[in-house]
Amino acid sequence: MRIVFIGAVEFSRLMLEKLIAMDCSPNAVVTSPDCGFNADHADVSGLADHHGISCHVTGDINSQESINWISAQKPDVIFCFGWSRLLRRPLLDLAPIGVIGFHPAALPHNRGRHPLIWALALGLIETASTFFFMDEGADNGDILSQVKITIDPWDDAGSLYNKMVETAVRQLDEFVPALERGDYQRIPQDHSQANYWRRRGPRDGEIDWRMAAVSLHNLVRALARPYVGAHFIRNGRSHTVWRSRVVDSINPFYLEPGRVIKGGERPLVRCGDGCLELVEVAPAVELQEGEAL
Question: In terms of CATH, what superfamily is 202-282?
Answer without folding.
Answer: Formyl transferase, C-terminal domain (3.10.25.10)
